[in-house]
Design a protein that fits this description.
Rossmann fold, alpha/beta
């Protein structure tokens, strides 16, 4: 694991590299989950960077994650979009998985919209629904301890109540199926067994994923407001198509996610 000083200096270098090519202030960062690249159509693309072009940036290796950074605008609102993320199960340490968040903070980002494709473990959610994350269950074993400089004191929520409420209102106004709920995350890369699904349900989770909590944890540490959203792509332990099936459904369902994100950006 990298020492904090080394992480900070690398983030400074990456941010400085990007800043030279960004002609406006960035306010919001967005992380796109598996197959959710269609959300980028909500913005006018000004510049793109392959992750490989950015000093110290981790590179995506999983299908459905393009591995490029998009600098865009929606109206006068500057955004930076991760078109694909990296995961712990790809062999990256948590500090590497969350490295882009450190870079975004240095570029002026104060709000993060973090998305994922998830499997439902609750009868409250089915494929196509959007889960607005109110809280999470961290079974990734290490994200908090590696990313935090001290004990995580819950003097503020991990997920912004204001942004979550705004997204809920937009769902109602646009006729999109959105509900608030709890996300559970494991390291992966295997999908959940029936017994694990029952465990997650008993623990109080509504959906399960293999990402998101590391980024949210660091945002909490850095004081960045978070809107977390899961597109439900399958019923956990109830599909046989594997990751390609999940990506395919995510691509179909990302239209609704794009509508919610567009509305949130326009309102903040």
């Amino acid at each position: 694991m990298l020492e904090q000083g080394s992480i900070d200096s690398r983030a400074d270098e990456a941010a400085e590299h990007l800043r030279k090519s960004i002609p406006f202030r960035l306010r919001t960062g967005i992380v796109l989950g598996s197959g959710l690249g269609a959300v980028r159509e909500a913005f006018k693309t000004v510049r793109t960077f392959a992750y490989r072009e950015i000093p110290h940036f981790p590179v995506s290796t999983v299908k459905g994650h393009e591995g490029r950074l998009i600098i865009g605008k929606r109206g006068r609102h500057g955004v930076v979009v991760m078109d694909g993320r990296v995961h712990r199960y790809e062999g990256y340490a948590f500090n590497t998985v969350t490295f882009p968040v450190r870079v975004f903070r240095r570029l002026g980002v104060s709000t993060m919209i973090i998305t994922n494709a998830s499997g439902s473990v609750s009868n409250r959610f089915g494929p196509g629904d959007i889960l607005l994350i109110e809280d999470h269950i961290d079974l990734m074993w290490g994200a908090v301890s590696e990313l935090s400089r001290g004990p995580q004191v819950m003097h503020r929520p991990y997920y912004s109540k204001r942004l979550t409420g705004l997204a809920a209102d937009l769902g109602v106004a646009k006729g999109i199926a959105v509900k608030k709920g709890v996300l559970l995350a494991t390291t992966g890369p295997s999908y959940e067994t029936p017994a694990e699904v029952e465990f997650a349900r008993t623990a109080g989770a509504d959906a399960a994923t293999m990402s998101t909590i590391p980024e949210v944890t660091l945002c909490h540490e850095l004081g960045i407001a978070v809107l977390g959203m899961s597109l439900i792509t399958n019923v956990a332990a109830g599909h046989s198509g594997g990751h390609e099936e999940v990506v395919g459904f995510a691509e179909e369902g990302s239209r609704n996610l794009r509508a919610i994100i567009s509305g949130v950006i326009d309102a903040i």
